[in-house]
Predict the structure.
Amino acid sequence: MSNVIYMDHPLIKHKITMLRDERTGTNEFRRLVEEIAMLMGYEALSDMKTRDVEIKTPIEDTVQPVLDGKKPAVVPILRAGLGMVGGILALLPNAKVGHIGMYRDEQTHKPHAYYCKLPSFIEERLIIVVDPMLATGGSLIDAVNEIKSHGGKMIKCMCIIASPEGVAAFSEAHPDVKLYVGALDRCLNENAYICPGLGDAGDRIFGTK
Ligand code: PRP
Ligand code: URA
């Protein structure tokens, strides 16, 4: 699937292993999610456009590149996506932040949308959708549907851990959207949790349960 890019950096791999470890507590878990988001963001944003500006160094006048276009928007899928926002903002401190609220029904595993607030002029912004887990793919597929229905066009998605089922479903639904994946896991279990995965990302980030 040509829209999917898998991370191959040893730092990302190492940190994802620490994230998976059940002994990793909330404090360290949060820090790792943020660091991984920043490392993945660095890779995912490598094709951002620049334009040249004239500046003066202490030595001479010069023409140098700066980021072009409107401020990007980071859009976490609540709750767990919130944990990745700080990592992207470390790279793009001026980015706007939108929010999409989704929760999975525990029986059907289908997503339910409960909130959506996106920055204005969304059609002109690069939009980075973040959620640590891509399981069935339902939440991310619906989130991107929502963003597209508001006019969003330049969309990239970042997930720390994905299942093969989720990647296939997302690619079929949104072949035009690039999906950056930190690690591709083996499969989903009967509760639609990713194996080996890391458990419930929201609970581990927020210390619930
Ligand atoms: C988790 C995760 C994704 C979703 C992935 O959220 O953060 O949003 O599940 O599953 P899917 O690919 O099968 O849709 P959850 O619904 O548990 O909500 P939470 O973040 O509020 O805990
Ligand atoms: N959501 C999670 O937080 N973890 C999974 O493994 C699947 C969905």
